From TrEMBL:
<dbReference type="InterPro" id="IPR033717">
    <property type="entry name" value="UDPK"/>
</dbReference>
<keyword id="KW-0808">Transferase</keyword>
<dbReference type="InterPro" id="IPR036945">
    <property type="entry name" value="DAGK_sf"/>
</dbReference>
<keyword id="KW-1003">Cell membrane</keyword>
<keyword id="KW-0547">Nucleotide-binding</keyword>
<keyword id="KW-0418">Kinase</keyword>
<dbReference type="InterPro" id="IPR000829">
    <property type="entry name" value="DAGK"/>
</dbReference>
<dbReference type="Pfam" id="PF01219">
    <property type="entry name" value="DAGK_prokar"/>
</dbReference>
<keyword id="KW-0067">ATP-binding</keyword>
<protein>
    <submittedName>
        <fullName>Diacylglycerol kinase family protein</fullName>
        <ecNumber>2.7.1.-</ecNumber>
    </submittedName>
</protein>
<keyword id="KW-1208">Phospholipid metabolism</keyword>
<keyword id="KW-0472">Membrane</keyword>
<keyword id="KW-0812">Transmembrane</keyword>
<feature type="transmembrane region" description="Helical">
    <location>
        <begin position="34"/>
        <end position="53"/>
    </location>
</feature>
<keyword id="KW-0444">Lipid biosynthesis</keyword>
<keyword id="KW-0594">Phospholipid biosynthesis</keyword>
<comment type="similarity">
    <text>Belongs to the bacterial diacylglycerol kinase family.</text>
</comment>
Length: 124
């Protein structure tokens, strides 16, 4: 089956959204780190309703878990591509994968800090 690009604006965008939804579903159902992070995002949404956080806190919380899930998606894509290009262990591939994972760590630390800023005062 050969790929044909859809040059129509509307149907092309609809297909792009379909591919994105398919990719998000694959991430959530096959990648353990994404499963954990998605579960934490759901937990944070429930906590937000429980603690009745304000609009600003909702914005920060949504941005935080959106950032983590987005960066984790890019990291997973980089890892899958690297494994496809060079399936055996290679120092340079390992270096690239480590850097991508480091990006996830930065996003996760920022998300944890935002979560603490929102929820620690609720317990004090």
């Amino acid at each position: 089956m050969e790929f044909e690009k859809d040059n129509s604006f509307i149907t092309g965008r609809i297909k792009s959204v379909g591919f994105a939804v398919k990719g998000a579903f694959k991430l959530i159902t096959t990648e353990h780190s994404v499963m954990v992070q998605f579960s934490l995002a759901i937990l944070m949404i429930v906590a937000g309703f429980y603690f009745e956080i304000d609009r600003y806190e909702w914005m920060m919380q949504i941005l935080a878990f959106g950032l983590v899930l987005g960066i984790e998606s890019m990291n997973t894509g980089i890892e899958k591509m690297a494994d496809f290009v060079h399936p055996e262990f290679h120092d340079r591939i390992g270096f690239i994968k480590d850097i991508a994972a480091g990006g996830v760590l930065f996003a996760a630390i920022a998300a944890i800090a935002i979560g603490l800023l929102i929820y620690v005062p609720k317990f004090i």
